[in-house]
């Protein structure tokens, strides 16, 4: 069991990223050269927890891990960044997940090849349920819908704030809608709002989804910034300008920073600006985690870019 107050419990994707910087992205059945390889922890929820932890929040990852070497490394990297793995179940019928990421150095874009999560669903013991109920925030992604839905149900019954990273989508869109409706904080990538709402534009989609129940609704659009529903209308926030080396994990880091700002009592506009700054700094280094700043580094960057 984790010692001390748990601020953010995370249920969702955690993996090992193998990041290959390439000369250029080839056409199918062609080739290119890999110029460097880096290995870091990855996964939407796991990387968000790392970001929040590095910024000073107490966090824990809840999920199944295998008894294999990859699982051990995934958990070791989480612990190294202050994310508790006290609620990670080591099971022989589970395995550590890997993701291969091809990074184009010309623009920092990344093309991902994640391993599909075929691990068994979480068995919600009283200890795991109590961990969710004791947290200030439960952060989820929809990679494993059953795990996310069960965790959200426990959190909502206990009055815990539910945050959903709208990134992974199920083929059954009713499942996507149901999970989105359970969130208090719904922050999505550029694909999720249009697909899940069925509406043709971001303003329409965000306003529609805000009517489903979430108190905070927004989507991240990379270097185009962020759109957020504030006081019944959609506001646009520009991205910070940096020389992007790799955009892997930028959205995940935005989530972790946003939750840290939310816990600190920042107003919504300040939360967006803070999270955008942290995500921008992340993009200046390879991988989803190596560029995540400390709180002091994030504040200094914002002061230089007023």
Give a verbal description of the structure.
The protein contains ten helices and 13 strands. It has 306 residues and is an alpha/beta fold. The chain has one domain (8-12, 44-65, 117-304): Ribokinase (UDP-N-acetylmuramoyl-L-alanine:D-glutamate ligase), CATH 3.40.1190.20. Strands 5-4-1-8-9-10-11-12-13 form a nine-stranded mixed β-sheet, with helices on both faces. Strands 3-2-6-7 form a four-stranded mixed β-sheet. Helix 1 crosses helix 8 and helix 3 (126-134) packs across helix 4.
Return the CATH architecture. Answer: 3-Layer(aba) Sandwich
Please give the count of helices: 10
Mean pLDDT: 95
Proportion of residues in helical segments: 25-40%
Beta-strand share of residues: 25-35%
Element-by-element helix/strand order: EEEHEHEEEHEHEHEHHEEEHHH
Key features?
single chain; 306 residues; alpha/beta; UDP-N-acetylmuramoyl-L-alanine:D-glutamate ligase; nine-stranded mixed sheet; four-stranded mixed sheet; 10 helices
Give the SSE map:
Blueprint (H helix, E strand, L loop, with lengths): L7 E4 L3 E8 L11 E9 L1 H11 L4 E7 L3 H12 L2 E8 L7 E6 L6 E5 L11 H9 L2 E5 L3 H14 L2 E6 L6 H9 L3 E4 L3 H6 L4 H9 L5 E5 L5 E5 L2 E5 L12 H14 L4 H15 L12 H10 L2
Parallel strand pairs: 1-4, 1-8, 2-6, 4-5, 8-9, 9-10, 10-11
Antiparallel strand pairs: 2-3, 6-7, 11-12, 12-13
Helix pairs in contact: 1-8, 3-4, 8-9, 9-10
